[in-house]
């Protein structure tokens, strides 16, 4: 069940000139949210921009007693709407609709490996928190163009995850793409049963899906499709899948954003 709340902004933490984390007071929404779901945020109180923007639920905020009090989003400003969110101040109010979409499925595996690129980190905090409650073994493979694109890695260490960091310019961690250490780790894992979860640029997710299939790992992707409404009405987020005799389209806001990677027809995916 999704609810639409006019949520007060509690904090706006600038991480860099382009990235920030915005916290919303939305206890009822937070109580309903599951790892991997998303919200649609109206970026102003007027009609410009008209459409909301989709954001993975980054964190579930809790009070001193552990009760949910809100949610946060990880924002990168790339256009009008995300610029407006970057410029918000505590006390401002925005409409937040959620939680929406399908969550990460609960899996039993020896290890759970998350593979994130840039803001693709967003759906993994809630997943890692859930896995940590069961003392699950976790790794986070986290890549970006440079060190300035990597945030919150220490939080995952706190939750018990082993970190593998990469940057394309070599400014932090291993130089190169995140799929290189992932491939090595998969080749060296032996009989360890690993579930893969990935979110980030489409070419990266496709590469992770290919590696997962080659190494016989259950692989799930959280797709970052453009969405107009988030509730299935506008058909702007359709994805072609192959789980019937004839390939067909599904709405990622309804059947996703989390998909079994083996369902996706990657050649048809717009990126």
Please give a structural write-up.
The protein has two domains: 3-100, Elongation Factor Tu (Ef-tu), domain 3 (Beta Barrel), CATH 2.40.30; 111-224, Rossmann fold, CATH 3.40.50.80. It is 20% helix and 35% strand. The chain is built from seven helices and 16 strands. The protein has helices spanning 27-32, 80-86, 124-132, 153-158, 179-188, 202-214, 252-255; strands at 3-14, 19-25, 38-41, 53-56, 59-62, 68-76, 93-100, 111-117, 137-144, 161-167, 174-175, 194-199, 218-222, 238-241, 248-251, 258-260. The strands form three sheets. It has a seven-stranded antiparallel sheet. It has a seven-stranded mixed sheet with strand order 11-10-9-8-12-13-16, sandwiched between helices. It starts with a strand and ends in an 11-residue tail after the last strand. The relative contact order is 0.14.
Within the largest sheet, what's the order of strands?
Answer: 4-3-7-1-2-6-5
Mean pLDDT: 95
Q: Radius of gyration in whole Å, from Cα?
A: 18 Å
Q: What is the CATH topology of the largest domain?
A: Rossmann fold
The proportion of residues forming helix, as a percent range, comes to: 10-25%
The oligomeric status of these chains comes to single chain
Q: What general outline do the C-alpha atoms trace?
A: globular
Unreliably modeled segments: none
Beta-strand percent range: 25-35%
CATH class of the largest domain: Alpha Beta
Gap between N and C termini: 30 Å
- The CATH superfamily of the largest domain is known as Nucleotide-binding domain of ferredoxin-NADP reductase (FNR) module
Looking at the overall shape, the CATH architecture of the largest domain is: 3-Layer(aba) Sandwich
Topology as H/E string? EEHEEEEHEEHEHEEHEHEEEHE
Largest sheet: 7 strands, antiparallel
For the secondary structure, the number of strands is 16
Number of domains: 2
The count of helical stretches stands at 7
Structural class per helix/strand content?
alpha/beta
